[in-house]
Amino acid sequence: MSRARGDLAPTPGQTIGPFYGYALPYDGDSALVPPTHRDAVRLHGRVLDGAGDPVPDALLELWQADPAGRVPREPGSLHRDGFTFTGWGRCATDDTGHYAFSTLRPGPTTPGTAAYFAVTVFARGLLDRLFTRAYLPGDSAEDRAALGADPLLASVDADRRSTLVAGADEHGFVFDIRLQGEGETVFLTHPRH
């Protein structure tokens, strides 16, 4: 069968989803700690496409250290019990591309480095997930020094580093993710990906 110019069949990667809203969300998925926890902070933002439009069907995973900088090794991430901090959560975006996690402020995993949230993005049109980091903003001189000395952050072009640093708000942190175009978030390669 011949096709007219520009009449291309979709590739498998363009037809496989997203099915995130059906198979992956679970009760308490975005609440690493209950929002009423005395140390709870909110990490929230929007996922935007290259035109700056919201991506209403993205799914984000959050991985992080606890406030002392320890990487939790607790089992049962899918079964929230209200007191065990597992350092992992999942959140789908809404119709405006917004997501929100209730969590704890992470500590630096190595002395002298900056604290961050590790974020994984799944979205339509992505054949592979994307990895990025949301560093905590430099609220103190010590935090600013850690941001300046962080090896990964220092390896990023100076004019793009801001795409990896969350902003502060009255409830915690704001981190928008731009998938492409002007202001595109810096995405990382993962050694086992």
Automatic annotation (TrEMBL):
Lineage top rank: taxon: Bacteria
Keyword Membrane: no
Keyword match Metal-binding: no
Residue stretches making up the Intradiol ring-cleavage dioxygenases domain: 40-110
Keywords assigned: Dioxygenase, Oxidoreductase
Similarity comment: Belongs to the intradiol ring-cleavage dioxygenase family.
Record PANTHER family: DIOXYGENASE, PUTATIVE (AFU_ORTHOLOGUE AFUA_2G02910)-RELATED, PROTOCATECHUATE 3,4-DIOXYGENASE ALPHA CHAIN
The protein's name: Protocatechuate 3,4-dioxygenase subunit alpha
Organism, as annotated: Nocardioides koreensis
Organism placement in taxonomy: Bacteria, Bacillati, Actinomycetota, Actinomycetes, Propionibacteriales
